[in-house]
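Hi again,

Forgot to attach this to my earlier email, sorry! This is the prediction with flavin-adenine dinucleotide bound. I've pasted everything inline since the attachment limit keeps bouncing my files.
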Amino acid sequence: MIVFDTDSTDGLETSHFDFIIIGGGTSGLVVASRLSEDPSINVLVLEAGTNRLNDPRISVPALAISAFEDPDFDWNFKTTPQEQLNGREMLANKGRTLGGSSAINMGMVIYPSCSGMNAWEELGNPGWGWDGFSPYIRKFQKATPPSKESEEHFGDVGYKQEDQGSDGPVQVSFADHYMPYYGAWMKTFEMLGYPQADNPINGTGTGPFINPSAVDPVTHTRSHSAAAYLTAETRARPNLRVVTGALVKALLLEKGTDGVEASTVVFSKGQEVYSVSVGREVILAAGATQTPQILELSGIGDGELLQRHGIETVINNPYVGRNMQEHGIIPYSFEVADGLPSADMARDPDVAAAAMTSYEKDGSGPLGYIQFAAAFMPCVDLPQEQRNEMVESIKALIKNPETPRALQKQLEAQAKLLEIPEETTAQFILAPFQLNPREEIPKRAFGPSHPGNFISICTVLSYPLSRGSVHIGSNKAEHAPVIDVGTLSNPVDLELHARHCMWADRVAATEPFASLLKKGGYRLHSQEPVDLERAKELCKELVMSNYHFCGTCAMMPEEDGGVVDSRLKVYGTTNIRVVDASVFPLIPRGNIQATVFAVAEKAADIIKGDI
Ligand SMILES: Cc1cc2nc3c(=O)[nH]c(=O)nc-3n(C[C@H](O)[C@H](O)[C@H](O)COP(=O)(O)OP(=O)(O)OC[C@H]3O[C@@H](n4cnc5c(N)ncnc54)[C@H](O)[C@@H]3O)c2cc1C
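Structure tokens for the complex follow:
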């Protein structure tokens, strides 16, 4: 039982804090923990959400979805109706508790690619290419090799301890047991010409792999950022203060000769409003949907937008909140052969109770781990002529004077990636349960709402060209930001994703995977395989949020449409930085939390270097 009082506001307004970190989520707690390693530096973390460090809905890895929609854990945002997706609103759930989204996410640990990271550097960010960034992928983690049983099951999974991080805070481990689909996954891709990938932490190659998760292999608990970085030793530091239920409303800004300085952070807790003075810096870590909101509420953003909401413009930067990127995920769910398992079996209360009993006894059983596998794949069936057409359409967009400058630069990098036929264009994910994108309520979409036992093959575009935005809809922090995610709004994304979905059907029809599925069984996406045009329609109908929102305060040169520089400082300010997923100039090739952890670790070193 962790006892950690984060409720008190006593003496806050008269205390001195060198750094005030806004958001005690994935990135915020990394930076808080690293900066407070120096006892002479006083750090305050203001987290709008709860302190639920002892709650099983966070700590039990396989209970992830149970926290959805509960305001004690989840902001439960939705996007605006997406015209290009037949007017659907997408889910935009986000962690609202210590640990942020890492406390409620699916736990998959997936690494970015060399080429994707090098594109960050090429976009004008020295030090952020693969060589400068990859040490931080190892710094955040303590990796444990797969169990003997897994090795017997899979053979060599390409894991090498010397490639991994071995003394970082976040526990990264593999499941204890795997259902039969995982071995078949590896073999089926091989049958299709794509053998096992190189260890993905090295950032290269294509093919299938068994991915680890952020789970402590000894306690079988989730290793989210609060569990990993707010250790007993860190929590006891007299120079670190964490306050939960503290909703930051705005920063008070003053214009100085060197630029704009944040002097005060204003937040509310319950009915009270508090003002805390900034010693050195404000570090924004409120996530890609709320960091831009806080900047705009403080007067940093598009002047016209701010004026519409009665906010005085202090720094006019129209790129704040633009450039939103999100992968989107399309699940194809297949009924499994009679007698084979699936996580859908947990709908039976006796099965669920047995799993809980086993977990409570010694952490064993299916609740104690998260079982996924993945593959990075090029677009196999894309004829060269179509590839050329796609590249040409990107080039036309780059030349279009209406395309924002930041996007032009990013598209140049993305066109280069698409020109390489063997470069990853999608991530495939094997999930051991059904997904129901036609259901609007999250628990029904992610739960076993359809009778029968299923597994899902999901496809995710690695480097989507589509862009969205997030902006304030009012001048109040209490109101949800307006999230216009833009998924599949670029026709190239739609065609690429449709082609990958068709390939998911091919995986399902290839041995040995095919024999694990029920002959003539139910397919939740569509009963029969479909042609390209129908696959595009299905994409619009089925694409779900993958919750990988990023890019809304992009790190790029100011003249190219950036919001922060490569030391993560907001342009025009002397003491405001951003350290969360907002700063990604380009989304990485797969799930993004490993990149978020690594960005925050690198940010902490940058900030320390500037003290
Ligand atoms: C449901 C879900 C599933 C996911 N699954 C995976 C996965 O399996 N693998 C993977 O790699 N990635 C996954 N992700 C993505 C990943 O978890 C996030 O990209 C990452 O955690 C974001 O980190 P962050 O620091 O940018 O923001 P967050 O972790 O969201 O932290 C932001 C924090 O700021 C707080 N905050 C916001 N506004 C304010 C304010 N005004 N005042 C004070 N505090 C504020 C929030 O409450 C939150 O705690 C998933 C995300 C979600 C939501």
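The mean pLDDT is 95. The chain has three domains: 12-104+226-325+550-610, 184-216+329-345+371-378+424-463+489-542, 381-421.

That should be everything now.

G.
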